[in-house]
Amino acid sequence: MGSLNNGGKKFVRRNEKLKTGSDISIGGALDILRSNLNAKDERPTIPLGHGDPSPFSCFRTTHVADDALANAVKSAKFNSYAPVGGILPARRAVAEYLSRDLPYTLSADDVCLTSGCRQAIEVIISVLSYPGANILIPKPGYPHYDACASANNLEIRHFDLIPEKAWEIDLEAVEDLADENTVAIVVINPGNPCGNVYSYEHLKKVAETAKRLGIPVIADEVYGHLTFGNNPFVPMGVFGSTVPVFTLGSISKRWLVPGWRLGWLVITDPKGYLKEVEVVGSIKQYLNMSNNPASVIQGAIPQILENTKEDFFENTISLLRQALDICVEEIKEIACINLLQKPEGSMFVMVKLDTSLLEDISDDMDFCIKLAREEKVIILPGIVLGLKNWLRITFSIDLPSLKDAMERMKSFCQRHAKPQYLKLDRRLTSEGYLPGSNLQSLEFHESSELKSQTRNI
């Protein structure tokens, strides 16, 4: 039988950069956690690891989107290949939608449609890459930026987000990191994973810093308008006259349809800073080698963007606010988890894990693996996002499931807590202490210590 070599020379060598990208991906981490689920546990698995609320009926998209897609299919006008960058009515609709929040008007020529925001990330990172270049990426952040930069041999330079300052960007660090080979700074607002919503003043400072450094801003606004705190959403494109902005977004989150894969890459550059480098042509050349979003989705997007009523968005925000409040109240009851900043947007809460209060948990990945195995609750370890011993919890699920998940997590943390850090909780019923209560956990620890002492006699 033949083998895949030729006189000792291998026929195939894989791209090792792809393995690196997989290792730092959210999907890769979630696969590990799912592989540790206990098949004998009949309780439902509760997914708090990624931002996809669409499986839950309370987060159903608007009928406007359903009707628009159905009409696009029935019309039979969108069965052909779409032109590179997207069909004109769809690009025009996105330009008009984004222009509502800007001091100037975008045109269809400023818009390229992509297969979700992830493809927009891949496109802009690839277009800006060249040998010896580097890019500034937030830590913690969305790991797809790191994966794409790594695959393009683009040096990654991380700048910190400061939790004590509502996860603001450390602008002094940004200035220290940048040099003549820096191609861009990535700003994610509203924030994934931290739930931050930056103020107008902070974003203005970001734009001024980028202008001083001579670099554009990649503004990831996939969670745009999903805000429920004091700061309203301010698009980075507002500062397009100060510095060129590449705005990345999609209908995935605000319309609750991540599987529809309709995103955009939009250039906000009213002063024409980018014309000399012909970046628009490079983007279209890249898209010519890639996939376009489905034609029927492009056909539906004008109706979706123009006709969705405000009450649909308000209902989504109300649900997210209720879910966040549940998360925050439950987290207060868990000694080993600390919430430094309450989120004001997106679908996530980032909390700090104190492993010193736990007996047999070594780090955040170990915590998440054992939580999945013992309680069938999946949350994302912070190491995947750039912060070791932090956890990202998604709250965009139905409220009963969220309450169940938080109770399971509370029980897990009590079960693994060191005895001296247990808070007495006298939730006593006729059948004894409630499962997972602190006194039950304390009895467990005392019983274990007694058995240990007996063995040593």
Structure report:
The C terminus is likely disordered. The termini are far apart. The radius of gyration is 24 Å and the shape is globular. Helix 5 packs parallel to helix 6. Strand 8, helix 8 and strand 9 form a beta-alpha-beta unit. It contains 14 helices and 17 strands. The strands form four sheets. An eight-stranded mixed beta sheet has the order 4-11-10-9-8-5-6-7, sandwiched between helices. It has 457 residues and is α/β, with parallel strands linked by helices. InterPro entries: Aminotransferase_I/II_large, NHTrfase_class1_PyrdxlP-BS, PyrdxlP-dep_Trfase, PyrdxlP-dep_Trfase_major, PyrdxlP-dep_Trfase_small, TyrNic_aminoTrfase. This is Aminotransferase class I/classII large domain-containing protein. Pfam families: Aminotran_1_2. Keywords: Pyridoxal phosphate. GO terms for molecular function: L-tyrosine-2-oxoglutarate transaminase activity; pyridoxal phosphate binding.
Fraction in helix: 25-40%
Strand content: 15-25%
Can you summarize the main beta sheet?
Answer: 8 strands, mixed
Give the tally of β-strands. 17
Radius of gyration: 24 Å
Poorly predicted sequence stretches spanning 5 or more consecutive residues: 424-457
Structural class: alpha/beta
Put simply, the count of helices is 14
Spatial shape: globular
Q: Separation of termini?
A: 64 Å
What oligomerization state is this entry in?
single chain
Strand order of the largest sheet: 4-11-10-9-8-5-6-7
Q: Give the overall pLDDT as a whole number.
A: 90
